[in-house]
Amino acid sequence: MRTLTYFVATSLDGFIADPKGGFGDFLFEGDHMTALFEEYPDTLPAQGREAMGIDAPNQHFDTVLMGRATYQVPGGLPSPYPHLRQYVASSRLSTTPIDVEVVADPLTKVRELKAETGLGIWLCGGGRLAATLLPEIDELMLKVHPIVLGKGIPLFAGEFPTTRFAKASTRTFDTGVIFTTYTKADTP
């Protein structure tokens, strides 16, 4: 069975973007980026892959799911991850390129995708979608940046049940960024 991984950058105070959805305060240079490029090239958008000459096969994910605001980030691409199957959770979005599918019921869609064979499913953002999909999230991969935003889009937004995760690994980089992976804990 495939897994759903919420792989996302976050500030020390738990925000994945500023109040307008921007992420310019996060660190985009340094040894953590080298690790990201080498180990998770499937999470880089098409223009980043092209600029860096990355044409590596997908290593971890073959599908990406994102919220409408993440998909429509200013300056974004109409098809940001053409090397993955792309889904956008939205009840308002009506037009997308042919390789981007809009889904109104992301929980049902994730359950369908998890029943298929293939690589993992990457939950790219946002906070409301993460809260909706929390029952199906198998793994959290947090890229914690050494910044405090004070306000913005939270890692999880809205109402959701308490869910326990167990730490699987932690890597600290010279930039101060920490990659921490958590897996869903067995419930008592």
UniProtKB/TrEMBL annotation:
Q: Which GO terms describe its molecular function?
A: 5-amino-6-(5-phosphoribosylamino)uracil reductase activity
Q: Which residues form the Bacterial bifunctional deaminase-reductase C-terminal domain?
A: 3-179
InterPro entries, sorted: DHFR-like_dom_sf, RibDG_C, Riboflavin_Biosynth_HTPR
Q: Which residues form the signal peptide?
A: none
**GO biological process annotation, one example:** riboflavin biosynthetic process
**Name of the protein:** Dihydrofolate reductase
User: What organism, scientifically named, is this protein from?
Assistant: Saccharothrix ecbatanensis
